[in-house]
Amino acid sequence: MVECDHKTMHRSGPSKFQTTSWSLVLTAGHDPAVDSRPALARLCETYWNPVFAFIRRSGYDRDQAQDLTQGFFALLVEKNFLEVADPQRGRFRSFLLTAVKGFLSNERDRLHAMKRGGGETHVSIDVNADALYAPVGAESDTPESLFERRWALSLLEHAMAKLRAEFSAVGRDRQFETLSPFINRESMGTRYEEVATELGVSAGALRTVVHRMRRRYRELLRAEIAETVASPEDIDEEIRFLMSVLSS
Amino acid sequence: MAEFLRCETCGGTLAPQGELGLSCPRCLLSLASEPESPNQIELEISDIDTEPLPFEGSRK
Lengths: 248, 60
Fold this sequence. Notes:
The complex is a heterodimer. By secondary structure, chain A is mainly α. Chain A has one domain (18-247). Chain A has 11 helices and no strands. By secondary structure, chain B is mainly alpha-helical. Chain B is built from 2 helices and no strands. Chain B has helices at residues 25-33, 38-45. The longest helix of chain B has 9 residues, at 25-33. The radius of gyration of chain B is 17 Å and the shape is extended. The termini of chain B are far apart. The relative contact order of chain B is 0.11. Classes of the chains: A mainly alpha, B mainly alpha. Chains A and B meet through α7, α8, α10 and α11 of A and α1 and α2 of B.
């Protein structure tokens, strides 16, 4: 796992927006002197699941989808796809979705050509939904909508993983395990009293710690989103879009 | 296709595995969109802040 350095980002105000991975990628697409591959590789690692979900929903079985996802990212990192990135669009999400559509289109053309030429193609049927795909899939989901939903969940998951890592780094694994469910406001209310009694502390003390966790999660999540947009002005707009994705 | 769990607060789909556990994605995402309220800041600096939790003392 490649470490993301969010320390400068989440401590900075809006006027001190740092260079994000995506803006670095955009710059690299037009400036050969900048090596964007580490940043791009990090973004691809983070957003493997949305691409996998898109390919899976496009009609490929699990093994094929895994191979194609790997192949897509390998091509994205190794080839100079960055030249087609449009900074005016400003969304890594949009760029990646367009890129994977083109990749699949080329892949279908290649398979079609192989069939016409007598080449062998291996097609297996997987009737069981796999673990990565099923939890966010619905019958009505298009590949695009599944990609967007999986994208939103990936952001949330990565922010949570980073929060967990921060607690773990200072020996507070147990605190995280006990209190992280409270980050979700749905868990508020009488459960504070129950857990506080169980731990032998006041509900107020518990609320303070949870508040800090929630605030830090907010910072990490905004930093995670900032990694995928080109300017600070885009963050809230992207959040609104992601909210609409999760609401549909 | 499995039937999804729903958040009691917003009705959103829960992600019953992975890093999010049973947290509601919509409610989590809404945290990022909300400005911090003055009440939260007051809570942060209140005297209850000094009370340690039982598992905080064992830190090396």
